Amino acid sequence: MSLPNESLLMDTLNPDHPPLILRPAPLRVWKFWGTALWGLLVFVAMFVGQVGAVLLLGVMRGLPLDMNSIQSVGREPQALALSVIMGLPATLAAVWLAIRIKKASFVDYLALRWPAWSQLLLGAAGLILVVMAWEVVSRSFGREATPGFMTDLLKSGRDKGAALLLLFAFSVAAPMSEEVLARGFLFRGWSASFLRVPGAIILSSLVWTAVHLQYDLYFLAEVFSIGLWFGYMRYRANSLWLTIVLHALNNMTAVVLTMWLGG
Question: How confident is the model at residue 56, as a pLDDT?
Fold first, then answer.
């Protein structure tokens, strides 16, 4: 007499009756238009969070809520740093809502996995090559390697005691906000659409470049090329943490060197 478990075991060993393999359900994602529309909403949320921080500072100082007051406060290094920082929770909240509606895992949707050290080293090496190539081009054309207004901002922030706040804003808050939007949410949805991975890398890099429209065309081209490398590494390592770390290292190096050279 055979037991049920023994029968099941023999079935799994029978080539005519292979064992049942349970595969996880595919991740539910927004496709092209859903990702585009939600991406626009995420960008609006980021903008509202940033402007809201400036408005709050103006109200706390008793200033009128007009354009002149907003521009005056927004040009201060401390206010600009707080604005960038406040854009992060707004971005995360909007992305979380979009993913929640799809009933997907926030971690899986954004590929929040720690990369292997070899991938981190490869990503850093490629980033250094891209940045150094643009440095050579800048020197050959007699251009500054950093936009002038950023140099003035960082020097002013250093002199006014806002160096650490600016360092946190540009090296932590900005990379996380921008990577969650570009290489996280946008890349995930667009790579699953008709664009596939190459199109998703290019289009998400274009969107990320558009976030930096305060730069001229030369620096926008540099931003776009860095975005392509970040997008490739996001795909290769399947890790958003990798691009967040690379983005943070790039910004931190630029901020520290600019402040130091400004001394």
Answer: 82
DSSP string of 91-127?
A: HHHHHHHHHHHTT--HHHHHT--PPPHHHHHHHHHHH
pLDDT value for 263: 47
* Token output for 68: 């002149």
Amino acid identity, residue 204? Answer: S
Would you give the end-to-end CA distance of the chain in angstroms? 88
Residue 230: DSSP 8-state: H
Backbone angles phi, psi at 230, to 5 degrees: -60, -45
Tokens of 35: 């990702």
Closest CA to 169 of 104, 252, 81, 109: 81
User: Residue 101 has which token pair?
Assistant: 């509606």
Residue with tokens 């002149």: 68
Query: Are 54 and 70 within 8 A, CB to CB?
Result: yes
CA distance 114 to 107: 11
Which amino acid, 176? M
| Residue 21, SS3 per DSSP | coil
pLDDT score of 15: 57
What is the model's pTM? 0.87
Task: Report the alpha-carbon angle 173-176-182, nearest 5.
Answer: 135
Regions in the chain scoring below 50 on pLDDT? 1-3, 6-10, 263
> Among 48, 80, 35, which Cα is nearest to 184's?
35
C-alpha closest to that of 212 among 242, 156, 240, 250? 250
Distances (CA, A) of 232 to 19, 80, 202, 203, 211: 37, 31, 10, 12, 19
Which has the closest alpha carbon to 184: 207, 211, 210, 204? 204
